[in-house]
Structures
1.
Amino acid sequence: MNADPKVTRLREIAWRRPLTGAEQAELRAWLAAHPEARDEWELELALSRVVKKLPDAAVPSNFTARVLAEAQRRDAAQARGRRRTPAWWWRTFLPRAAVAAVLLVTGLSIYRARERGKETLTTVREITRTAPPPTLALDDYDVIASLSTGPGADEDLLALMQ
C-alpha cells in the first residue's frame, strides 16, 4: 500500500479497533483521491477481520524466560564466534600453505635431479673425449679366440643318449 503517513496511521488503527466516523471520513477522502488503492484497502480490512476472529494462542507460562534464554544463547554463540575468528587461519591458510610447500619441494627436487643429470652427461662426454678408445682387448682377440675353452663334449655319451 502507499507509504502515505495518514493511510499508514489509519491502517494501524483499523488493525486494533474499528475506525471512528472522523477516521472513516478521512479514509473516504483519501480513497476518492486514490481510487487505485481501494481494492488493496478492502483486502487489508478483510484480512484484519479474519485475524481478529482467530483465537488467542496459548502461551506457556515460561514463554518470556525461554525467549530471553534463547536470546542470551545466541549472543553467547556470536561472542564465541567472534573469539574464534583467528581459527580461520588454521582451517584455510594452513592447508593451502602445506600444498604450496609440497609443490615447492617437488619442483626443487625435479630441478635438482635434472641438474645432476646434466652434470652426469657432461662428465660422461668429457671422459669419452679425453679417454683413448678401448682397443686393448681387441688387440689380443686372435690369441684369446685360439685358446681352448676346456674339454669338448663327450661324443660317446651324446651318441648313447640319442
2.
Amino acid sequence: MLTDEQIAALLAEPKRVVTDPLSSLRRKGAHLEATAKVAADSNADFRVVVRVSTVNPHNFSVILMHRPRGGVWLRLRRYNGRSHFHTNRLEGNRFYAYHIHTATERYAATGGADLESYAEATDRYADYRGAYRCLLRDCGFGGPGPDDGQLSLFPEEDE
C-alpha cells in the first residue's frame, strides 16, 4: 500500500508526455479512449488515460496512472466531468460538480475502495481539455501555464 508521502512524491516527480493520446483515440462503446506514454526521470512507470463520452460532453475522465515495479496499474489522480454525483464514502459528503480524485492512504486502507475514491469539487476546468491541462500542471509535467509545450497536446476547438 502506498503512503500519502509516496503518493505526493509520485505526483511531484518530473514527467513528460512522449506520445499524443489523441493519435491513439479509439472507440469503446459510447466513449473515445486514448493512452499517452509518459517518461519520468526515475524511469518509473506512468501513463495518462483520457476517456470522453461521445454522447455527453460532461462525461469524461483524465487519469494519471502509475505501476509500481512488478505491480498493477494504480490511479493516482483522476479529473472527472460533471456527469454524475460523487460521494466521499468516509466523509459522507456528496456533490454534483467537476471533481478531482486523489489517491490516499486512508481510502486504500479501507479495502474494497479504490485508492483514489476521495474527490474534491473544482471549478478549474469545464471540459476534458481543461482537465488535461490541470493534470499537467498538478502532476509534475512542468510548465507554469498554457504556453508550455506539454499543454498543447489537446488543440483548442478552433485550431
3.
Amino acid sequence: MNPQSDKSIVSILGLTQVIAFFVVSFSVPTIFNSYHRYLELFSHFRFQYFVFSLLCTVLFLIYKNYKSAALMALVFSLNSIYVLPWYVNLEEGRGDNAVSSLKIIHSNVNTANESYKKVIALIKEENPDIVLLQEASALWVNQLASIEKTYPYKKANPRADNFGIAIFSKYPFESIEEIYSGVVDIPSLKVDLMLGGQKITLISTHPVPPISADFYRSRNAQLKQIAAIVKTIQNPVILIGDLNVSMWSSDYDELEKTTALVNARKGFGILPTWPTMLPIAMIPIDHCLLSSEFKVDNIKLGKDIDSDHLPLVLTLSLNLIRKRDF
C-alpha cells in the first residue's frame, strides 16, 4: 500500500473515531433524559445516533478495528431499540367496523414565511377535511381566505408571535374552545365535531420550545395541562400539533401514558418534520396522537412549503368497536 493510501486510511479512521466518540457520548447518557433538560434536548436525535452508529460499525469493520466495531455495534443495538419499533405496526388493518374517514393537514407554517401559495396548493392537492395551522399570523389567515369556500367553518386566533393558531374545516363545529396555558398564556384549540354520527374531539396545541429552563418547564406544564383535559373526554380524541418534543423524551412518554393516546407514526417510520434548513439534523416534533377508536390509514410528510417545518398529512378511519382503556 502506498503512503498516500496510508494517509487516507488514517484520515478516515480518525474521522470515524471522532464521530464514534460523539455518538457514544450523546446517545448513551440520553437514556437518562428525565434527569436533566440538557439530556432531554439531545435525546431527540436518536435517529441520527442510530444511523451514525451503524456507519461507524461498518467502517471499523472495514479497517479491522474490531474492538471499536464491537463497541459501536452495541451502541447501534441500543439505538435500534428506540428507532426500529416505529417502522413496525402489529395492529390489524382498518377492518369492516370503520364508520367514517377523516383527512387532516397539520402545518406549522412559520410566522415569517410568505409562501402562502404553496400552502394553498398543498391544501388543494391533498383535499383534506380539516386544515390546522400553527404560527398563524393575521396575514396568514387573510391570505388563506381563498380556501374558505371549501372550508366554511373556521376558527382563528392569529398572533404576531409564533403561537397563532387556526383551524379550517369542511365539517361544522359542535363546539369550540380556546385553552390557554397558565404559564405563558398561549392558545390551544379544543374542537368537537360530528364524524359518521359520532362526536369526536380534536385538540391542537403548540407549546414553547424548551430552549431555556423556564421554557422547558412551560412546555411540560402545557403538555400536562392538555393531558389532564384529554383524560376527561369520553369521545374519540385527536391530539395534534407542534409539541416541541420527540418520541424519545421521557416527557413525551408521560404524555402518552397519561392520555392512553398512540402516535399516528407507529408503523410508518420516524417522519422527521423540523428543521427543514438542516436535513441531517431533522427530528420528529410535530405529532398526531389518537385514541384507540381511530386507525391510521396513512400518514406522510407534506411538500416543502418554505417553513422550517414539514406538514403532516393524515388519513384516519373511525372504528367505534375499539375503545380507550385508561
4.
Amino acid sequence: MGKIYKIVTVPAKTLRQRSVEVDPKSIGTPEFQSFLDDLIATMDSQSSPAGIAAPQVGRNERIFIVNERWGPKVFINPEIEVLSEAIVESEEGCFSVPGVWGIVPRAKKVRLKALDRHGRKMEIVARAFEAIVLQHEFDHLEGVLFIDKMTHTTKGENTKSV
C-alpha cells in the first residue's frame, strides 16, 4: 500500500490551474512509479472511487487514474476527442468538492490517447459511464471542475465519485 495523500479541495487555486505535461523520460523512474502507486492508494482510500487526477493531491501534472473493473488504469499526458454529438446527463460528485453533487452533461462517446504507466502509447474509445469518468478526470487537468458544467445540484444518492 502506498502513501495516502490529502485530497486538495475547493477553493484551492491549484484545482483551477492547467496541469503541465509529464516528461516521458521521467515515467520509468522509481520516483514517478512510486507517485503513481501513491495516487492509486489515495484513490482506493476514498469512498466509491471512479478515478482521481494528480491535481487533486496538489500535483499539477497531466496524470489521472481510472478505477476499472480489473484494476486501476493510468493515463499520462492524455488528449481527448469527442466522437459523438449525443449528450448524456449523469449525477457527478468529486473528492475535491465534498458534499456537492450535480447533473452534468457530457459527450456520450470519446476517444482518449495517452501514455500508460510504462510510457507506451495507448488509445481507447469510451462510451457511457466510462466516457463520463474520462471527461471528468481530464477536466481536472485543464483546471475545470464538474461544478463549472453542472446544470443543477442533487442530493448525490447512489452515485460513485468521479
